[in-house]
Specification:
This protein is mainly beta. The chain contains no helices and 11 strands. It has strands spanning about 5, 10, 20-25, 35-40, 45-50, 55-60, 65-70, 75-80, 90-100, 100-105, 110. The strands form 2 sheets. Strands 2, 4, 5, 6, 9, 10 and 11 form a 7-stranded mixed beta sheet that branches. Strands 1-3-8-7 form a 4-stranded antiparallel beta sheet, with no helix packed on it. A hairpin with a 6-residue loop joins strand 4 and strand 5 (about 45-50). The mean pLDDT is about 95.
Length: about 110
């Protein structure tokens, strides 16, 4: 059974940091590109960051320089290190595996507020 389980969300003050994790199981993780998306209340889901099978990364302009995506194929996990968080970063963050098939996790809430 395929599973993507996100963790690490929570409430953080502006300027703070969080590290999200997405643990994968049920498919060959190393064969899949991994993505992070987010959806804020009342807005459409938007791309945040991606990392290819070979480690090539890409970012949305809104998070470039503040967020870092990484993966650990031995642990079947993808991470999103988020620094210098802003109120506009408040959203549900979900990971996506994209390869032969596409899979989504359920998401984890990130709230940036003082």
């Amino acid at each position: 059974q395929v599973q993507l389980v996100e963790s690490g969300g929570g409430l953080v003050q502006p300027g703070g940091s969080l590290r999200l994790s997405c643990a994968a199981s049920g498919f060959t993780f190393s064969n899949y590109g991994m993505h992070w998306y987010r959806q804020a209340p009342g807005k459409e889901r938007e791309f945040v960051a991606a990392i290819s099978r070979t480690g090539t990364t890409s970012y949305a302009n809104s998070v470039k320089g503040r967020f870092t995506i990484s993966r650990d194929n031995a642990q079947n996990t993808v991470y999103l290190q988020m620094n210098s968080l802003k109120a506009d970063d408040t959203a549900v963050y979900s990971c996506r595996a994209l390869g032969t098939y596409g899979y989504w996790g359920q998401g984890t809430q990130v709230t940036v507020s003082s």
